[in-house]
């Protein structure tokens, strides 16, 4: 008996018939409605009665929301691997990680040759497939900077540029029956995908044995390789053979295949809608329940929790991997795993954590915190990994990644209250709210995570109209260091609710936020380029214009120093919006003309478009880049002294990226004591990025510190103690220390500008 412990999957194997081209699409939609996991399609490019499978896959991915799509299997001889890899990555990105690579070496050689493809012997087919795998995985490895070179006999690339990186680690499933192909699966692939009608008695255990031996020889755990099976049958009142009988017979026989032959994915062949509904609604749930019960009784280790020899060798000191709870181990990523490169870094900082935990709900977060407390390594929490400070990753420690908590749910239409998972991104939120013509101010980039920005501040393009992002938060759920799951609001745990809005990273793990969206129609988004030769004068005029502008206008500025071929320039990104209506273009033009008068205008373009087109959905893949060094400070006004200080910062060369953001308007309506973010009179935040912390500190302390009035920690990497008082002026800081002592007395949440609990400070 062989059970690899794979989480069971169920899907359909559909005919891409073009007699009525919408039928296979409708069957794929039915697959999703029936609760199944994937829809797969034959690929015979030489068959004129079929739709092109790749085109059909893209259409189906766009027409569905949840299921994975795959060829079953794609015809490699007629699909060049480099192009196929880029197509696959593109579809994976567009579908949000819902593509799997089912691949075949070819078999019907006469029609393949008739279509212009090669004729290959069985041995040549295996060689070509192995070369194709190297090319495809090389294209997907966008982190590798060197051009891709594979000098194959059948497929070769000579310096191909890599990328794009797919949205997730695309699994490669190979259709195979002969020993040489099975050994290739064991060494290189992620799944074995045969069809039951082509198998003889004993072929499944024999095939598994060949794959397992090859996997072990390659330093892999055989459980890394999913076993899939195309199968068919009939649901009928009486039994007349294998999978020819009542639902109970199907459940018994599929359960046996899972527990005795290691099948983790069952794919139903055929286009019968009623059978698909029965397969998804009755058979699949019963098989899952039966297999889960048998595994509990037998103590089966989940496949996702097993590691091969190479992965085990990559484990880090200070982490007791063996004690990790099963529900976390199934989705955890370790240094030796193939997914590691896609989760180790954040937006700017390169990281090398010892393990990345990916909980799916508050209960699993409780388990993760309980386990993490016993490890002797750094601990970090990640929403989406875009934070400038870089503290959502680490070296050798634990990262708690909340990316699975990304639902966006309207809970009250009347008040426009939206419950948003902490792992969602603001681009996803904007896209979801756009059909209702709602929007929530949220920074300037759609890849930013909800949990990070929504508990720190949130200075966004709608900031002067709506205030800070935290000003729209009306409730939150948080898991504390002791494992309590608490709902917070003005009425429930009000002290903790106060602290979460500005210092949330110190108080626990927020799982969701409830936020009141604003009614926002189309906005005017303007991009200007101004001559910044007189940087101080430009800043003074721009600052005054922004402060005098209607609240619907919010403007950000990026300053670029002089270069060999041009003088210093300023790029303005400005949004003009109206509450409850489309932006008035005439009013927007009048306000923008005032900004344009701040300095010599070099270029300008403006568009009327939805907010979601500006703060748009972005890829979650981060490749790091080093160790970010930045400073930030709040400015009450951009007066002459402040303008000259910023001018000297830019001229020094210490800051290669200098940005100013307007914050004011509605943010000034909030009492300074209402949230842990107490800065309610300042109008601007200035931030500078540098190659080294020492260099930016030296210039910042000399030039900006004398004119700044507080700090915005989201843009700061300087960890000297005085930053805390700048960010949390008294009495805010003392109150935060008392609340910290109640909810995190051991200072577990200390990776992101830690606030020492009152008792620890006294000690």
From TrEMBL:
Its cofactor is FAD. Pfam families: Bac_luciferase, FAD_binding_4. Residues 348-520 form the FAD-binding PCMH-type domain. InterPro entries: FAD-bd_PCMH (IPR016166), FAD-bd_PCMH-like_sf (IPR036318), FAD-bd_PCMH_sub1 (IPR016167), FAD-bd_PCMH_sub2 (IPR016169), FAD-linked_Oxidoreductase (IPR050416), Luciferase-like_dom (IPR011251), Luciferase-like_sf (IPR036661), Oxid_FAD_bind_N (IPR006094). CDD domains: Tetrahydromethanopterin_reductase. The keyword Membrane does not apply. This is LLM class flavin-dependent oxidoreductase.
């Amino acid at each position: 008996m062989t059970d690899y412990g794979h989480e069971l999957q169920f899907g359909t194997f559909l005919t891409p018939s073009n007699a009525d081209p919408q039928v296979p699409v409708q069957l794929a939609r039915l697959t999703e409605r029936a609760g199944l996991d994937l829809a797969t399609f034959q690929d015979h490019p030489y068959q004129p009665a079929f739709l092109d499978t790749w085109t059909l896959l893209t259409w189906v991915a766009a027409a569905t929301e949840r299921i994975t799509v795959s060829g079953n299997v794609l015809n490699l001889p007629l699909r060049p691997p480099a192009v196929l890899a880029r197509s696959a990555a593109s579809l994976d990105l567009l579908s949000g990680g819902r593509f799997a690579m089912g691949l075949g070496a070819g078999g019907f050689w006469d029609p393949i040759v008739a279509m212009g493809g090669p004729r290959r012997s069985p041995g040549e087919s295996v060689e070509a497939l192995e070369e194709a795998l190297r090319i495809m995985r090389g294209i997907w490895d966008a982190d590798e900077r060197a051009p891709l070179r594979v000098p194959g006999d059948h497929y070769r690339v000579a310096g191909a540029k890599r990328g794009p990186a797919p949205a997730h680690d695309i699994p490669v499933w190979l259709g195979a029956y002969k020993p040489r192909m099975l050994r290739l699966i064991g060494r290189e692939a992620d799944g074995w995908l045969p069809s039951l009608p082509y198998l003889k008695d004993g072929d499944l255990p024999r095939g598994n044995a060949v794959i397992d031996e090859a996997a072990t020889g390659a330093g892999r755990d055989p459980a890394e390789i999913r076993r899939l099976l195309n199968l068919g049958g009939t649901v009928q009142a009486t039994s007349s053979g294998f999978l020819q009988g009542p639902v109970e017979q199907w459940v018994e026989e599929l359960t046996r295949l899972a527990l005795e032959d290691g099948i983790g994915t069952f794919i139903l062949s055929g286009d019968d809608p009623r059978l698909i509904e029965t397969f998804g609604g009755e058979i699949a749930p019963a098989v899952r329940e039966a297999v889960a019960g048998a595994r509990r009784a037998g103590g089966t280790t989940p496949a996702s929790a097993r590691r091969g020899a190479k992965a085990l060798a990559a484990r880090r000191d200070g982490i007791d991997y063996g004690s990790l709870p099963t529900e976390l181990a199934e989705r955890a990523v370790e240094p030796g795993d193939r997914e590691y490169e896609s989760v180790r870094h954040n937006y700017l900082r390169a990281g090398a954590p010892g393990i990345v935990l990916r909980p799916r709900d508050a209960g699993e977060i409780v388990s993760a915190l309980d386990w993490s407390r016993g490890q002797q390594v750094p601990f970090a929490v990640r929403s989406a990994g875009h934070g400038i400070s870089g503290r959502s990753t680490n070296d050798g420690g634990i990262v708690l990644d909340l990316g699975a908590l990304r639902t966006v749910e309207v809970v009250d239409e009347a008040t426009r209250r939206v419950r948003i998972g902490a792992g969602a991104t603001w681009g996803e939120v904007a896209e979801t709210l756009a059909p209702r013509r709602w929007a929530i101010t949220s920074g300037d980039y759609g890849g930013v995570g909800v949990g990070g920005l929504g508990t720190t501040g949130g200075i966004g393009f709608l900031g002067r109209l709506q205030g800070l992002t935290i000003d729209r938060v009306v409730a939150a759920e948080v898991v504390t260091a002791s494992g309590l799951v608490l709902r917070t609001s003005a009425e429930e745990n009000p002290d903790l609710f106060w602290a979460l809005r500005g210092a949330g990273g110190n108080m626990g793990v927020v799982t969701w936020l409830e936020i009141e969206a604003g009614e926002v129609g189309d906005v005017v988004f303007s991009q200007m380029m101004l001559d910044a030769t007189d940087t101080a004068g430009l800043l003074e005029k721009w600052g005054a214009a922004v402060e005098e502008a209607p609240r619907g206008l919010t403007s950000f500025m990026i300053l670029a120093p002089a270069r060999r071929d041009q003088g210093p320039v300023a790029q303005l990104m400005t949004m003009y919006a109206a509450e409850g209506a489309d932006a008035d273009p005439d009013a927007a033009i009048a306000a923008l003309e005032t900004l344009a008068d701040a300095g010599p205008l070099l270029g300008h373009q403006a568009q009327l478009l939805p907010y979601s087109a500006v703060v748009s959905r972005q890829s979650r893949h981060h490749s790091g880049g080093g160790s970010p060094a930045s400073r930030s400070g709040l400015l009450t006004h951009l007066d002459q002294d402040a303008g000259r200080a910023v001018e000297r910062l830019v001229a020094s060369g210490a800051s290669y990226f200098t940005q100013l953001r307007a914050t004011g308007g509605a943010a000034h309506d909030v009492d300074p004591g209402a949230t842990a973010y107490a800065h309610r009179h300042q109008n601007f935040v200035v931030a500078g990025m540098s190659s080294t912390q020492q260099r930016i500190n030296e210039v910042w302390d000399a030039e900006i510190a004398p004119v700044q009035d507080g700090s915005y920690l989201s843009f700061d990497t300087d960890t000297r103690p005085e930053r805390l008082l700048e960010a949390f002026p008294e009495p805010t800081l003392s109150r935060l220390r008392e609340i910290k002592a109640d909810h995190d007395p051991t200072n577990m949440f200390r990776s992101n500008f830690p606030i020492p609990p009152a008792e620890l400070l006294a000690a």
